[in-house]
Amino acid sequence: MNTKKLVKISNIIGLIAIVLLIYWVFTYMIISVFDLRIFREQMTAVFAISILGILALMAGALMLNIMLNLTRIAERSSEDTVQSSKKLLYALLALFPLIAVLLFTGHHLSGKRKEQILIRSAQNIVQSHAQEVQQMTAYQFTLPYLQNSAYQADILRKLDPAFRSVIVVVPDKLNDTPVYLGFGSHFSPDETPLAEATPPDTLLAHQDEKNKWLVRKVDYLFPVDTATREYLNSVFQQQNQSIRFVADGGSYTLYYPHRVNGKTIAVLVFSDYQHYGKFGS
Question: Is 143:215 a contact under the CB 8 Å cutoff?
Fold first, then answer.
């Protein structure tokens, strides 16, 4: 193989490496800025490491050009060169919106797959562990209920790897204000000096000679934004039976209404978080 062909091949390799690097940086920026979840962990790692391979390819092509010390490219007519360059430029530019569309589509499909997984797991939990669910949703602001609901929520969370947390949400009032309370796998009374009186909406867990341990209703307030509050209002007040799925970056939350005798008495909230998407090996 003569030096002219070697130079031509090295130039082509270098240009391809540069174009790949530009597309890789563009792809990485889209994924990082919009917090997209597309590939599984292994594919994400391969995708990240590929930058090293591209840089090595560029460095090799550059060194080959320097060592050969040749810059002449095969002669072509000026008109053909301009026409070919324009077509190639348009094709390369068109790839940018195409890559963006593919990334957002992959992120959307990952979210849909996660939604299906959570719904199937939630349905399986409710059907297979009806007794635990019944105990969690039979809400009363009492110490036995708080302790038992925390225990049952911890069991349900560990039964299915699709969930990182399970919370039961119920309507209640705090100082005559309608609120939503959430009970999950935690039960931690606050230590208070014994001299203080027990305020309203507070339970006395236990006490010793110096302190008493209180459980306050305010500690179980379930934080809701406007959209979540409207959904919960429709579930409890209008008997809306729809399941709600929310994907926020890598956080996934499923709201699953639980009905008894035709009436919604609680909403089971299943949550998970993942750093990666659902596609790839």
Answer: yes
